[in-house]
Amino acid sequence: MKISVDENLDIPIYRQVAGAITGEIKKGQLEYGYQLPTVRQLADELGIAKGTIKRAYDDLEATGMISKTRGRGTFVSWQEDTIASRKDKAMAAIDNMLDLMEGMRFSPTEINIFLDLKMRERMQRETLVSVAAVECCPETQSMMVRSLYGLSGAEVFRKDLYETMRNPEGLSASADLVVTSLSHYEQLFPLVGEEKTFAVAMELTPESISALSRLGKGRLGIFAGSERFAVLAKGAAARYANKTVFVFRKLAGDETDMELFLRNLDIVVAPAGITRVCPKREEELLHEFAKEHPVVEIAYRADEGSMLYLSQRVKDLQLNKRR
Questions:
Q1: In whole angstroms, what is the distance from residue 92 CA to residue 90 CA?
Q2: Rg for the chain (alpha carbons), in Å?
Q3: I need a labelling partner for 90 at 20 to 30 A (CA). Which of 58, 228, 234, 295 fits?
Q4: Domain assignment of residue 4, yes or no
């Protein structure tokens, strides 16, 4: 080994020794498996204290350059990460895994099935398309997200419309695709790009239409979490519950007294899941009202045509990510 040290340098002697040996190893002068001199031998050769050489060897072992074997000596353990060495490591890892699975009494056919399943899962996970559902109305956004959860290969998260308009760069960086309703498409595509923006048509579910259509005469009130959804619900009731008379609306948690609100009504229309977001007292009063009066919870969903086009868009993005 070609090792020289300079006591005038600010670098500690043990680091100079460790650095020199590392250089020799990486240049190929000391190959994998080469046996290094003992601490005593190298200390005598260089005229350096044994404690200094021991510290240098300890550092080299900590970085994976060398390994010590009791009773045998100290050997070079670093190996350049060539294709051949990586292949050898991979094959050894596979052998270990196969030995373990065979020890669990799995047949070769079963092992092959398990490996195929795990590879499919990993490929799916590595190529998920990040989809942002952007809306101004929390209820509609939740319903949109519920539709998007059915997309294969998509990872869905929510983003507020107004926050996105204030900081479109943040959304562009975190989402592969931005999905919004038709009413907000014109606002979003100039901010995040037309190629990245997708509009879905939201429609009332058949169950909601059927429930509204079956309503008889009566005074109808809207109970919603947001003003935006209250407007949508009023429009839906006007279209499908044509025998009812709209009285007024109340937003969950506002100052309007819930008992007074319900006292003047025969029917309540609310977004699906309203009881999960309204105060406990309002939930209890609505439950009592429902014992004697109709309470129709309505929901929207992305229409079938939109979902077909969106599903294909996600698949295309997955293919691009895999290339």
A1: 5
A2: 34
A3: 58
A4: no
